[in-house]
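Chapter review: from sequence to fold.
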Amino acid sequence: MTAETAEKITCWCVEVADSERDQLVAAFAQHPELEPRLLLGPLAAHQHNLSTAEILSVFIESHVTSGVLEDLPNLKLLVTRSTGFDHIDLGACAERGVTVAHVPAYGENTVAEHTFALLLALARKLLAAERHGRVGRWDRQGLQGFDLKGKTVGVIGGGRIGLHFIRMARAFQMTVIVFDPRRDSLLADVLGFEYATLDDLFARSDVVSLHAPSNKNTYHLINAESLAKMKRGAILLNTARGDLINTRDLVSALNSGQLGGAGLDVVEGEQDVSEDLLLLGNGSEEELRAAFSRRLLSDREDVIITPHNAFNSYEAVQRIAEVSVEAMAAYVAGEPIETVVEAS
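The token string follows.
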């Protein structure tokens, strides 16, 4: 595909939220050779009507499987407006000659800031305190929190988001230890943290924050065994991927007091599990277990759950739109783009 043949190439964008529509429109306005089609709802609601689509952009609730690709026979470029791409069957895309691009960096500070907001809210029992104040209850029974200064935070995943979180923790005078398969001693010296094994991190940390990708090595990284290794009363934060935590084991650790609280922007099965499963019982055993565990989490005062919203600042969404549209424009112009699958 070249610039000469790229007059008004239609770019289909599904799962477009109201909060990102204006940014996408503005980004497309910089590229008159592209004709945007912005659609509400995930890909499953539209895929049968996109048989002619050559360029498609999705978000995290649009699962692109080999079966879905069969309904998209003309697809050449798939752009996910996210950093993660575990919702896309990369092997199937490669087999069908579909180039896949993502947004490698857009909101490292954004997600880190949300993670720290969860930590502060848990440390100072902010939700319970706000409820007291809202109803004019000025006693402080049950509202005593703890200082972050002097506490140890263990960061699992020392990538871009993890590093921003580390800087914030150091600014609060916390001790930071990090587990990451790749180590950079110079970076550790500059930012003032130390690397540790997982077992050492679990044993020493007052707070454990997850910033790792979802893959076969990290699936249920937090489980009954790892939770038992943590300090009793530790706080767990997850703004990475829900399947890093075994939800049933998390509930058990909270019930026993082994875990003192959890701040979760992602939960296991969040894209597939609905309340209808509990009402109708029409899911698999695993789905029903996840739905029930999530219900138990949502009723707890020591747990804060936000709806996969850590990325959702105005500035981050604007960057997502700009980078996604730039990838489409570069592809149309025959220019190189950063990809996770490069079609041959």
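Two observations follow directly from the output. Residues 3-106+314-341 form a domain with the Rossmann fold fold (CATH 3.40.50.720). The two ends are 13 Å apart (CA to CA).
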